[in-house]
């Protein structure tokens, strides 16, 4: 029923880490409920898919969700590998149901490809386990350089934007580019919309955001991230390709292994988070249909006021 008219409404709240997306999404849903309309939230932060990964992903505690149904949270074990194709299928099914019932679906997150998989008309091929194993072995034996060179030959556009330091993404991009049913993992220059949506792109002043991200990293470790990761280790975190590489979790694992102090881990997490935020800003800047909202200086009360203006 993609593209069909429905009585409900889709709103997307996107932007870099630390811009207040979750608080605004909840405030928007609250505002719609105050007006007598049902509203549900669909998560599009890939690391929040994982059960037990709470502190380092800034997952909103259940007690602070105001009774609003949240979807695509805590749906994977840390040993599972996230799949954008599976996410697209499940997230869209939830949104279809909410809209068919006349409600408001609020998509919220900063994982660019996952957000785009819902909002835009993108297709994702399945996996080829045999090819994947061969590429993983090649990466282990020779590092990223040969795979990156092959990707440049097969799909120059994808090679120009890929983070070669991320083995999982590099291997997946080469796998896709090597197949006859390939699609690029980058966002097309003019993507077609899956269905009508109001897209809100949150921005903060760079200087304020950088300071906030460093404080966020320090707070995660103060709030018990190392203990959280120690518990996840017992559940197989180090065997999970996706979860173990998450920002904050990889650094906390270094602390537990004795390879870094907490102070070093906080600094490394802050640096990694800032780099990730820059990539997010670059990704969402290409959303031509988005309304940019400057939320510099806005706390939770300020974001609630923004929601009142959005949902008049």
Key attributes of the depicted protein:
alpha/beta, 312 residues, 48% helix, Helix Hairpins, disordered N terminus, Rossmann fold, 3 domains, 6 strands, 6-stranded parallel sheet, Histone, subunit A
Number of helices: 12
The major β-sheet equals:
6 strands, parallel
Q: Supply the CATH architecture of the largest domain.
A: 3-Layer(aba) Sandwich
What would CATH call the class of the largest domain?
Alpha Beta
Q: Which regions are unreliable across 5 or more consecutive residues at pLDDT < 50? A: 1-5
Distance between the termini: 29 Å
Q: What level of helicity do the residues show?
A: 40-55%
Radius of gyration: 19 Å
Number of strands: 6
Task: Identify the strand order in the major beta sheet.
Answer: 3-2-4-1-5-6
CATH topology of the largest domain: Rossmann fold
* Broad structural category: alpha/beta
What order do the SSEs take from the amino end to the carboxyl end, as H and E? EHEEHEHHHHHEHHHHEH
Shape summary: globular
Mean pLDDT: 91
Q: CATH H-level name of the largest domain... which superfamily?
A: P-loop containing nucleotide triphosphate hydrolases
